[in-house]
Design brief:
This protein is mostly beta strands. Helix content is 2%, strand content 43%. It folds into five domains: 71 residues, Lipocalin (Beta Barrel), CATH 2.40.128; 90 residues, Macroglobulin (MG2) domain (Immunoglobulin-like), CATH 2.60.40; 75 residues, Sandwich (Immunoglobulin-like), CATH 2.60.40; 86 residues, Immunoglobulin-like (Sandwich); 35 residues, no CATH class. The strands form eleven sheets. Strands 26, 28, 29, 31, 32 and 33 form a six-stranded mixed beta sheet that branches. It has a five-stranded mixed beta sheet with strand order 10-16-15-12-13, with no helix packed on it. The longest helix is centred in the N-terminal third of the chain and has 10 residues.
């Protein structure tokens, strides 16, 4: 490098111009076209070993280090940035770019269904229920400038769980900040019954507390709530009973995508218990639901909820499994992305030509059915296809592709349409052309079309003059 010896291994380069280049390795290195300068951050009291860099210029550049560490440089001074995390959140980056999904969501494998951070992954699993943005989602909002309250999200006990008096169970929850807390037992209306854990200090992230289910409580439904400290959090309702609880069903295949048809079997460790189930339903099975057969063939996208029942015992918790069969086709593209738009919104849906595409939508703010559900499979024929929504409504759209018996990932877009102002221009330069919606202007020896413009009507504002 022009006679300069650069000793650290280099892991990346970032260039603003031929005379303004940064290299990153153990230390950041800057070249101005004549000289190279290595910045020993550790010697400045910044324990940052950098591996990546980005910025707008050399007076506003940021460096990423290991274990969630950051540093910034303003042309004169270095500053360490505390991220508050031990590791960086992993983003969704499939090999094939997916418009509106790649880089905009968290990685599905790192934050699968049931993980406290699964809300911000690029798709929801069938029948997945999410109660919190998760600590990563809230941290993102906080970095964007939102004021975030401390939030505790309970993952156990969950909805429909039955706990036998005198047995041992584990309360699990995530805390967005960590700090002082206590645990209270309440009724389903969050009315205090008793404290089950006096004030302690929990950690940011995952926490747990092992407790013995009190034997002196009446049979019934209860909740666990954060009772003191600055956090808010309450669990879903669960049952406490003096009956022994049946063991929840397990399946010989775990949830996932399989290349060909599979035969699944369910079993429970409770002898003589009957396993009952629902299929492609949000409802948990009841004593009236059909009994699960000896085996079941799965040939397409299928979600099963199963419970074990036995006389003189409390029903088990619900086991949920979801299967997809075949090679998953590429997801459809729906543009524009979710957001607030003016009336006369044009939404375009496109998909790979070797797949079929199905959709469902609502215009009243309610959630549409998954297009894979029987009875709600409305197929799109033209590819691409554009729909125009004129009313002031909330439009929710769900789209899935389908190929060789396998459904693609769900694409779910939500649009809020507001009253708009339309700027229309009458073409007075080309008297043969009088259509509204677009106009023409003579440029570069040809007529160039320009569309009319629609933009959302601004909200009423109070302006004070001094």
């Amino acid at each position: 490098m022009h006679g300069y010896l650069i000793t650290p291994p280099l892991t990346g380069a970032f260039s603003f111009s031929s005379s303004d280049i940064w290299f990153v390795g153990s230390f950041p290195i800057h070249g101005d076209g004549k000289n190279w300068v290595m910045y020993h951050l550790q010697g400045m009291g910044l324990a940052v070993s950098v591996s990546k860099a980005w910025g707008t210029n050399s007076n506003n550049i940021y460096f990423v280090g290991i274990n969630g560490s950051f540093a910034s440089y303003d042309g004169l001074n270095w500053r360490k940035i505390e991220s508050g995390t031990k590791t960086l959140a992993k983003l969704y980056v499939p090999k094939t770019w997916e418009d509106g999904s790649s880089l905009y969501h968290l990685d599905d494998n790192t934050y699968p269904a049931g993980n406290s951070n699964s809300l911000m992954t690029h798709m929801q699993e069938n029948a997945e229920v999410i109660y919190s943005p998760g600590e990563v989602g809230l941290a993102i909002m906080k970095d964007l400038g939102w004021i975030i309250n401390r939030l505790a999200t309970f993952t156990n006990p969950g909805s429909g769980i039955a706990l036998q008096k005198g047995t041992i169970d584990t309360v699990r929850w995530t805390d967005t900040e960590g700090g002082a807390y206590s645990l209270d037992l309440t009724d389903t209306n969050a009315i205090f019954i008793r404290t089950i854990l006096s004030t302690q200090k929990d950690n940011k992230g995952l926490n747990q507390f092992v407790w013995a289910i009190p034997s002196d409580l009446p049979n019934g439904k209860y909740k666990v709530k954060i009772g003191s400290g600055t956090a808010y959090g309450i669990s879903t309702a669960f049952t406490i009973t003096n009956l022994q609880v049946a063991s929840a069903p397990t399946f010989n295949y775990s949830s996932g995508t399989y290349p060909a048809t599979i035969w699944i079997k369910a079993r429970t460790q409770t002898q003589s218990a009957v396993i009952r189930y629902t299929i492609n339903s949000m409802q948990a099975p009841t004593i009236s639901s059909p009994q699960f057969p000896d085996s079941m063939q799965i040939t397409t996208l299928t979600t099963i909820r199963a419970k074990a029942f036995k006389d003189s015992m409390a029903e088990s918790g619900t086991t949920v499994v979801s299967y997809n069969i075949g090679i998953e086709p590429l997801a459809a593209e729906v543009n524009p992305p979710s957001g607030a738009y003016a009336q006369n919104l044009k939404v375009t849906i496109s998909w790979a030509t070797d797949s079929r595409c199905f959709w469902s939508r609502t215009e009243d703010g309610t959630e549409p059915h998954d297009p894979s559900e029987p009875g709600y499979q409305y197929e799109l024929i033209s590819n691409p296809i554009t729909y125009i929504f004129n009313s002031t409504v909330t439009v929710n759209i769900k789209v899935r592709t389908y190929k060789d018996g396998t459904w693609g990932s769900l694409v779910y877009n939500q649009y809020t349409l507001t009253p708009g102002l339309r700027i229309a221009q009458i073409d007075d330069e080309d008297i043969s052309y009088s259509s509204f919606g677009k106009w023409k202007k003579w440029e570069n020896s040809q007529w160039i079309e320009y569309p009319d413009t629609t933009f959302p009507r601004p909200a009423l504002a109070l302006i004070i003059y001094f």
